[in-house]
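Project channel, design review

CF: Before we commit to the Kribbella kalugense constructs, I'd like one complete example in the thread so the newer folks can see what an input/output pair looks like. Taking Putative phage baseplate assembly protein.
RD: sounds good, go ahead.
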Amino acid sequence: MTDSPAIQRRVGTAATFSAAMLSGLGRQPALDRFTERRTDDPSIALVDAWSAVLDVLTFYSERLANEGYLPTATESSSVNELAHAVGYQPARGRASATLLAFTLEEAIGAPLLVPIPVGTKVSSMPGPGQVPQNYETVEPLDARPAWNAIAARTRSVQHIGPGARSAYVEGLRADLSIGDAVLLVGSERENSDTAGEWAFRMLSGVELLPALGSTRLSWSEPLGATTPDPTDAGLFVLRRRAGVFGANAPDYRLIQNAAARPTAVQVTAVQAARPVTLPPIGNEILVPPGRPPTVPTTGDWPGWTVVVPGGADNVVDLDGLYPTATVGSWAVLSLAGVPEPYRVQAVSETSRTDYALTSRVDRLTLRGPSIRTRFSDNVRETSVWVGSELLALAEVPNPRPVQGDRIELARPIPTVEAGRTVVVRGPHPLIQVADGVRGLTVTPDQGTSLVLHAGELLEVAAPAVDNADGSITWSTTRGTVTAQAYQLVSVRPANDAEIFTEVATTAGPTADALVFAVGLSGCYDRESVRVSANIASATHGETRSQVLGSGNASTPYQTFKLSQTPLTYVAAPGGSIVSTLQVRVDGRLWTEVSQLFGTGPADEVYTSRADADGVTTVGFGDGLTGARLPTGTNNVTATYRIGTGLVGRVDAGQLTLPMSRPLGMKAVINPSATGLAADPEPADSVRANAPRAALTLDRVVSLQDVEDFAGAVAGIGKAHATRLWDGRRLIVHLTVTGTAGQDIDDQALQDLTTALLGAGDERMPLVVDRAERLFVPVAAIVFVAAGYDQTTVLAGVRSELGTALAIDVRDLAQPLTIGDILLAAHRVPGVEAVNVTDPVADVPALPARMSAGQALPAQIVALAANGLAVS
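CF: and here is what came back for Putative phage baseplate assembly protein:
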């Protein structure tokens, strides 16, 4: 094999042959007298004719020599035959695949189960300059109306945490008012006298919310760091404020004995054991007869205590009757603004006479810390709240995004079985810095942290992470933010916000939630996200049926041609590309093989091969290598699909025209753009890939093998393999790009990974990732040489730069240099000088690398769409 661009095998041309023959005429003695050399002479015309014949013969001799080698062959048939000689099968294209989401009728009387058969055809709504493309489902689907657009549960039981200043309760509670007390009690305090968390606040606001069917209760002082979760125990309102019996007793120093006139005793501050506050009648204290003239220093009565005198430590008499103080309810005693909750164990009505008071009161036996120790004789200063009522916490808008491996549903649906493919669609969540919040910062991937101010909006780009301290780390488009839940509030995205799509697989049957086998990679706004479970796979192409002809058992190697082109090839599980052709003989399905060699005389097999024009020929055996066709009339039939390649790719939302409509089907759409596609492999690609396939020998061992194997897969444009250390071991990292600038979908990456592991060591630590694409604008000022048309030259520069800087021309990890731009521009005749104004410096493109323990793919730098400015 030669490496030359062309083999020089011609021994001459028409001119050299003519000159040689004319020269030979003069050397023949018999022709000494023949001196005619005019071209119109018949003899000279004969020389010219043979010169032309020899010119043609040598031309085709040279062409035949060139067609015998891959580097020099130009005919597609030659290239393909040479590739077949080394066992390489040129890729015949790849039809794009997608998922179709079916919407069913939900009206009363509509079927609850609609079977969508294989082969259901859907056509695209073409855009400007496009033609309709047909797709057909490749799997059966049992669809249900309830699975059309499954909504996430947008409301949840609220979790009132540290810093909270409000709570939502069910119903429109007009009976609650500002000044009522609320008590939050954790389950531990429910079951303990002293342990456990609780919080006590006075209501500063009561807001009725008819739209939500709930009431918002607010308080001024935010909850502390040890706030209990009321969903674990309860939130109570205490609307009756009471006092301890005796709290309204008269000042002991002003008591007068009604039976005897008291005598006045003159007391000075010097006579008192300690300074006293004299009563308002001057310097006289009234002392009843028979009592020693002791000097009370306060208005408290002798034996004055909060608890009942002579009773247990936790028995308290209230200052009246309070019917709402019941057994099992909560009571809160407060001294100097410091509250303490108690559980009411017993309630009895009693008559109490003391401290110059007589009243019927409620006697409470309370469970909790010692009241005698805690409140002592502070009868007047102790306040009591009783009559607790458990408030039902309302479901409130859930501010957390949809993420992870579980979505709680808005309403129960028919059970979604395990292994079902669903599509999750919705915008990214928006979060806003809450009013009054200060000190939050956002840390970009590169650069310094920036201070966030109240009201600033952030778009969440990745799942949020809950931290051990109760804070949440948000990954936004501006960087990373860590904040408490109350510091950032959820904001609904705009109606025209960008919609993101993700495919997931269910993990188990459930009716009130969707559980996924693998957690979602993205996160979505809870109110806007929708999940479609009426999903079926479809591929580009349209089914055709054809009678190929009649079998003849006496004829070996019978062949038939398909009448329509191009034959559709689709990706199969395991990463291979297979034909949609099915051949039946006498109604029995035969098997397609790549070659007849190695098959037996009874093997019902056939081969298919496409020529340079895309016409497919089906061939059968001779009875030794592959069975002969049995004799029959029109007994050889074929079913296949036509349509393949890049022309079949459509954008999200274009496949909306059902060509067949099963009963109950309302609409259909492709939620995302169609997947990887490829045209039949061109000759240049075959030249490059055929030798590589021969070198790999259908096995993958070295890094070069990995690259060669991946590069030969239909739809893969470039591949770059390297080894990276992940901290524990060396891994093989493969970065790939799609042909014609296509973005490689997740399914194509998975298929490629499966195929590589199948051809190599299944234990090989392999990571396959799509390239990180960097698109940059280019601006240049072109100076046109004198005598050239400026418009023509500038148009040529734009065309040349657009071609040279296109993504399918650039290599992985190849920097975009100023020199690349200058070189491309100067290829255009008439360019005298070029001043590149953007970019101002070379743009680097990094290879695959490790960063923060994560393998990052190689970068590819190319010209941005509509990013070329030439003047």
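RD: helpful, thanks. The radius of gyration is 45 Å.
CF: The chain has a mean pLDDT of 86.
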